[in-house]
Amino acid sequence: MGRPPERLPPLNALRAFEAAARLLSFKKAAKELHVTPGAVSHQIKLLEDHLGFALFRRLTRALELTPEAKAMLPKVQEGLESLAAAVERVRARQASSALTVMAPPNFAARWLVPRLGRFTQSHPNLELHLASRLAMIDGRENGKVAPAVDAPEETPVVMVRFGEGRYRGAHVDELFSAVYVPVCSPKLVRGAHALRKPEDLRFHTLLHDETVMEEGVRPDWQDFIDALGIDGIDVSRGPSFSNASLALEAAIEGMGVALSMKPLVRAEIDAGRLVVPFDVSAPAAFSYYLVTPEASAQAPGVAAFREWILGEAAPERGREAKATRLA
Description:
Layout: H1 11-23, H2 26-33, H3 37-51, E1 56-59, E2 62-65, H4 67-95, E3 97-103, H5 105-122, E4 126-132, E5 157-163, E6 170-183, E7 206-209, H6 221-228, E8 240-241, H7 244-252, E9 257-261, H8 262-270, E10 282-293, H9 302-318
């Protein structure tokens, strides 16, 4: 450890000196500091006694700084400004709030992040932490609210979960249901063997997403083809990917056709990077829900985020999907 600093002069004495030295008047300094001229004079005397030298020469109707005071004034001003800035930073931090949002990886990357800038711009004092977790997809712990991984204990947490919507000890809002559609690069709907109707899938590579979910939660290619009653398509062919985002990137690059949740790829569809080749869709058993644990419900920022994300999700809830119901 370093040597402790020598005893500093009292802060009030330094403030009185800075004001009097800058204004060259005890009276004006007293007015600025909201004290009496006598109080300023007393603080200057205390400072001079502490330092062991005079700071002012008292002339007729005027004050003059001693050479020692002239040398000291810039550093005193710098120190007071630094102290004021430090206090302001602490106040600003106390005025801000923090929020951790946890969401499934594909939802976070494809739906939430492209919209999140609108929220952070309107809430600049909110310290937002976004964490993507596969644990936000319902599994065996379906009825419980998953722990807030990587969030400090004092930081409120809200979660977006893909599941059935039953979460004890939390307020639950449905964002939107999951409707799966085939998607591919626009180049696959042109030329020889153009993909325009379900039967055309036999001429194209099927892309598979290996994200682990409970049986029957979402349709896979076998479910999709069986529901349509199409024969002659080998659903086992085609590459597999460890998550939905990788499968979508492969579809964008023209490698084949992926099954994806339409709300999560709407931006790619609107931008022309992906197309839905034919108007057939299939619903999943799960939906997306905003889950607010009771411990976070009253925290600053939580209500603002809830209002914002429900507003962003409203257009998806309002769209009617033509779905082929799976058996």
